[in-house]
Amino acid sequence: MIEDELHELIEKVRRRGCEWQTTEVKAAHRGYPERLYDTISAFSNQNDGGVMLFGLDERNQFEKVGVYDAQTLQKKVMEYCEQMTPVVRPVFTVWDEEGKVFVSAEIPPLDVAERPCFRTAQGRLKGSYKRVGDADKPMTEYEVYSYEAFRKRYRDDIRPAKGVTPDMLNQDLLEIYQARMRSERPNLARVTEQQQYELNGVTQGGKITLAALLLFGLFPQSFYPRLYISATRIPGMEMGVTDLFGNRFSDSKRIEGTIPEMLQKALDFVRNNMHVSTGIDPLTGKRIDIPQYPMDAVREAVLNALVHRDYSIHTESKPIQLNMYEDRMEIINPGGLYGRLTIDQLGYIQPDTRNPIIVTAMEIMDETENRYSGIPTIRNAMAQRKLPEPLFVDTTGEFKVILYHSLKTIETVSTIGKTPASIHAMDEKQLLEFCHIPRTRSEIISYLNIGSGQYALRRYLDPLLKQGLIRMTIPEKPRSHSQKYVTVEDPFGCRKG
User: Fold this and answer.
1) Burial class (CB in 10 A: 0-12, 13-18, 19+), 68
2) How open is the CA angle 48-389-352, to the nearest 5 degrees?
3) Spans in the chain with pLDDT lower than 50
4) Which residues, in sequence order, are bridge partners of residue 94?
């Protein structure tokens, strides 16, 4: 950050009258702030990092008060940063305005493989924080675990399934799988059957794995009763709405079995609970059935939930949810995106794989074409039917796919979880104001509160880019991970156009 950018940030905070996801304000005019550990940890643990801004008094409408001693303040912040694990290296900027000095400390994001950043004295579980809006919140035990699982490459899909013996597996299916694996990997034929089981993830240390139980088990839910799909048809647009007879669900089913069986039963549930209209094939002139949802998209969404969900002990009590509302369908699986993958990258880069044995087995058993085609298939299937783009929503605890079945919902896709006031506030003028400071895609999506990055770009950014009201900071590399967007201004400080 250069001095001019620090000055712009100061004015931005005062104009907006608040802190936000990547900015924390501290006064520091009467001494040195305490409890910076929480913010340092939270900023380090989010993809965009953050800035601590010293010299504004939040309690007095962000009055410019300056800092007590800029040099000593920087040393104090550095002391806090050195008490973190891993040690944080902030970047300082100093701005002098009318005898008052302001200081910023930029906290860089840690690589996912190094997270969570925590206060060493408190330990990983108690000293790890995340940023939620303008607040620093303690991470849950699961959130800490999710980072550790990626860093240490925990393999929950091949953990031993307690109490499961070989006779509790469908031996015919298992043999088909083994035969196909030997066909795909000829070297397997040179080792013993037991060694093949170990190499293919059927056993681990001689014990039947969770993956084997979920793929070939006679009844997996007898051992893990919550690893099922909870499928419901809701007679409205929100959970809790009832029909004329007071029923909260038009249909409800607990879908159990192996992963392939649950996939098929879930598709049957969707077919039975969606409307099918009749149209005319323009090529043949024959009548055809047109389902509300393209089944290719539904299949991939459910399949992704089954093979990519978190199967750790932290989430084994949580089923996958398939909820059909009047206007949309939601498929929710426990566990957010795995590893370094972000919402913006879905379907465009090769992701880290949480459950490689399950994914490979489903490919070998011809249930999937390849492990990276699911998201593009969903997008393409919706586009071919001229339906709204699918929404993907990621939190640390769950991942959600939302499919709308009507064009009428295109303009309301971005309103999930928003009040009417916030919807109206999301206009071009405010986005232009927000982008006075160069913003990343993630910052813009967070500001708009939209789960789908691609939808945000298409709906809000693209028109402003075409009008020349917003420009890319790296126009020669439009898809650069370092790309930012900034409002175009003339020499007099007014937006062009």
Assistant:
1) middle
2) 45
3) 409-426, 451-452, 490-497
4) 103
Q: What's the pLDDT tens digit per position in 2-43?
A: 899 999 999 999 999 999 999 999 998 888 888 899 999 999
Return the CATH fold of 229-415. Heat Shock Protein 90 (3.30.565)
Are residues 448 and 456 in contact, defined by beta-carbon separation less than 8 angstroms? yes
When the candidates are 3.60.20.10, 1.20.120.420, 2.40.50.140, 3.30.950.30, the CATH number that belongs to 3-139 is: 3.30.950.30
Residue 456 confidence (pLDDT):
62
Listed residue (175, 174, 196) closest to 187, CA to CA: 196
> What single letter denotes the amino acid at residue 5?
E
Measured between alpha carbons, how far is 399 from 318 in angstroms, rounded to an integer? 13
Strand 84-85 to strand 118-119: parallel, antiparallel, or no bridges (unpaired)?
antiparallel
Please choose, from the candidates 294, 485, 249, 456, the residue with its C-alpha nearest in 3D space to the C-alpha of residue 387: 294
Sign of CA dihedral 455, 457, 459, 462: negative
Q: Where are the alpha helices (DSSP H) in 91-216?
A: 123-127, 141-151, 171-184, 193-199, 210-216
Give CATH for domain 420-487: 1.10.10
